[in-house]
């Protein structure tokens, strides 16, 4: 068995410092050397990001097309609703005119009936006066 060395504090601090410097140099050497796997991963990541952006742009374009289509459908529905309202208003005006014409005809029939009844009554009255 090896006999332990008697290291004083300065030797231990120097050894620790040298080990730390060696680790730092090893890390720096690793950073300086281009890693082909890392370059591949970086390229793959860039491709994924580009694909995500392309899909997001496509989704946004689809949303815009859908929004434009909904707006066109709403405009068409509004035009159809306005045309339907106009047709209903015209039908209502025609029905009102027909009801008014029927009312006027009924009033004229009532006036004619009253005139006929009065003429019959006057004729009976005249006949009674002539007999008497």
Name the shape in a single word.
Answer: rod-shaped
How would a crystallographer describe the biggest sheet?
A: none
Estimate the strand proportion: under 5%
SSE ordering? HH
Q: Which segments are poorly predicted (pLDDT under 50) over 5 or more consecutive residues?
A: none
**Structural class, judged by helices and strands?**
mainly alpha
Question: How many H/I helical runs?
Answer: 2
Domain count: 1
Compute the CA-based radius of gyration.
Answer: 54 Å
Distance between the termini: 174 Å
Q: Helical amount among residues, as a percent range?
A: over 70%
Mean pLDDT: 91
Annotation, overall tally of beta strands: 0
List keywords for this structure.
single chain; mainly alpha
Outline the structure in words.
- With 132 residues, the chain is mainly alpha-helical.
- It has one domain.
- The chain is 91% helix and 0% strand.
- The protein is built from two helices and no strands.
- The protein has helices spanning 9-32, 36-131.
- The longest helix is centred in the middle third of the chain and has 96 residues, at 36-131.
- It is rod-shaped.
- It starts with 8 loop residues before the first helix and ends with a helix.
- The relative contact order is 0.03.
